[in-house]
Design goal:
Length: about 525
């Protein structure tokens, strides 16, 4: 009788003896075999069982692949094609051929390995356009993901925190520095208590959803101008049905750990543009610390105590140190940037925000963007004079103050970008800092009139409606007494930032990359 076991099929695949697949490159993971041939990838589940999955029967493997196909089509419909049988007719194996189905394959469209974001990030800074597209892609997924109010919340996070401690205690003695585990565990438990009400409120409000669950750079690919998450968790509702900010936190933590904090800030900024989840910012330091701890323990538990690899040990320690750095979060602060149109307020705000803790950087609130949001129009659609009446200006500044207050209340720092041309407008934003009892810094940018006119004329696809006529009108405006720090904005952005590091108590080494790693895989 012919051997149609899973092991025999894998041997036939290795020999290139399955019709419709042929000779293929094999990649093994914990729970799957992937065979790369031509333009396609063929994924088979391995007949394994762990505490979190069971693939021991062919039917279980088929159902898992069908779930993987369905869930990943949410973000990667062009990559995930079909679940097909491998058949056996008594003599030959074939993909979707004659005979009985003995195994099941997830057919995927193959993509270049160097298009994965972990490979791109290992080669240098993640391109800003990629980071922005990534933030938007994750926001869209979270926007339509199925709500799971019966999961998540404080009970789920408590289980994760307790499990982290148990697993870290099982790590080989001496792998982590004495006391680091206690520091991380203690800070996580305190954060869990502090955020209990918010965790439960978000669960009840429908912010626990069927998310990706494994959102790190190795599971994201750049395809042309699109950034596509793939390989989401299909085998565990507990792992994948989480708070949307917890899902995002894995990605942000992965970027920060890789020395890609500017890209992490761009991801967060783009995400918040799509989903105004300002209250969720309060949970990000806790969530990122938990995610870093999970990576620390997984990396450490894979280390062979008899032959520990230096790179793996160093990486495990770096993850746990990162978790300790995320908690407790530093006190928030508010920086307001004012000046006439064309002084470079937004450019400076985008340069400063990633330098400001908590990681990956401060919330940026722009009057130009909020005005468009209040008007219900796209960000780059021009508004007429009706949108700039005193009443609408007051409403816009009230919205700036409200956004800042919501973020500050959760412990998140804020940068506000607006002309702030009138004393009462500057007073509004200063009041937000005073109400929160936090540090305030006001910056007033100045540049020659010719520079301002030139800069606004060069703008493309920007939220600002200012043109040369607006600048000339502003030059006639009486801005009143100025108590904010005056900044010469005619130089390079790097020079301006450098001049402000001391006065603002910022540290540019926040953006320094970690040591290069020998293994770019996540």
């Amino acid at each position: 009788m012919a051997d149609t076991t899973h092991a025999a099929l894998i041997e036939a695949l290795d020999r290139g003896e399955v019709a419709g697949i042929g000779k293929a490159q094999r990649i093994d993971t914990l729970a799957a075999h992937v065979f790369l041939a031509g333009d396609h990838a063929h994924k088979l589940k391995r007949p394994v069982a762990f505490s979190f999955l069971d693939f021991r029967t062919a039917d279980q493997r088929r159902r898992a692949l069908e779930a993987e196909l369905r869930l990943n089509k949410r973000t990667a419909p062009d990559l995930y094609l079909a679940v097909l049988p491998i058949t056996y007719d008594g003599q030959h194996y074939a993909l979707d051929g004659e005979g009985a189905a003995i195994e099941w394959v997830l057919l995927m469209r193959r993509f270049p390995a160097d298009a994965q974001l972990d490979r791109i990030a290992a080669a240098g800074a993640l391109p800003p356009a990629v980071a922005v597209a990534l933030g938007r892609s994750v926001a869209h997924l979270h926007g339509y993901a199925d709500i799971r109010t019966a999961r998540g919340g404080v009970a789920a996070m408590r289980e994760v925190v307790l499990g982290n401690r148990q697993d870290l205690d099982a790590v080989s003695p001496g792998l982590f520095e004495t006391g680091v585990i206690d520091i991380v565990d203690g800070a996580a438990r305190l954060a869990l208590v502090r955020h209990t009400a918010l965790l439960e409120a978000r669960r009840r409000r429908g912010l626990v959803r069927r998310c990706h669950g494994d959102l790190h750079l190795g599971n994201i690919v750049a395809l042309g101008d699109r950034v596509v998450p793939f390989d989401c968790i299909e085998f565990s509702e507990d792992f994948a049905c989480v708070d949307t900010m917890y899902d995002l936190a894995f990605l942000l933590m992965d970027l920060v750990e890789r020395g890609q904090r500017p890209a992490a800030w761009l991801v967060l900024d783009a995400y918040l543009d799509e989903r105004r989840d300002l209250e969720g910012l309060a949970l990000l330091p806790f969530y990122m610390a938990v995610r870093a701890t999970i990576r620390a323990k997984v990396t450490a538990l894979a280390v062979d105590p008899e032959r520990p690899e230096t790179d793996a040990v160093d990486r495990a320690r770096r993850y746990l140190d990162l978790a300790a750095a995320f908690l407790p979060a530093p006190a928030p602060r508010l920086i307001a940037i004012g000046g006439l149109s064309g002084t470079g307020k937004t450019t400076l705000a985008r340069a400063l925000a990633p330098l400001i803790d908590p990681a990956p950087g401060a919330l940026l609130v722009r009057s130009d963007v909020e005005r468009k949001r209040l008007a219900g129009v796209p960000e780059i659609e021009r508004l007429d004079a009706w949108a700039y009446t005193p009443e609408r200006n007051a409403a816009c500044f009230a919205e700036l103050r409200d956004c800042a207050a919501r973020a500050l209340a959760g412990g998140w720092s804020v940068v506000v970008d607006a002309v702030h041309g009138r004393p009462e407008e500057r007073a509004v934003i200063e009041q937000a800092a005073r109400a929160a009892g936090i540090r305030f810094d006001g910056l007033w940018l100045e540049a020659p009139a010719g520079t301002l006119v030139q800069r606004v004329g060069e703008r493309r696809d920007d939220a600002s409606d200012a043109d040369a006529a607006v600048v000339r009108g502003q030059l006639e405006m009486d801005v009143g007494p100025l108590t904010w720090r005056r900044v010469d904005a005619e130089g390079t952005i790097d020079g301006i930032v450098e001049s402000l590091l001391g006065p603002l108590d910022l540290n540019a080494t926040t953006l320094a990359p970690p040591p290069p790693r020998t293994n770019v895989r996540s």
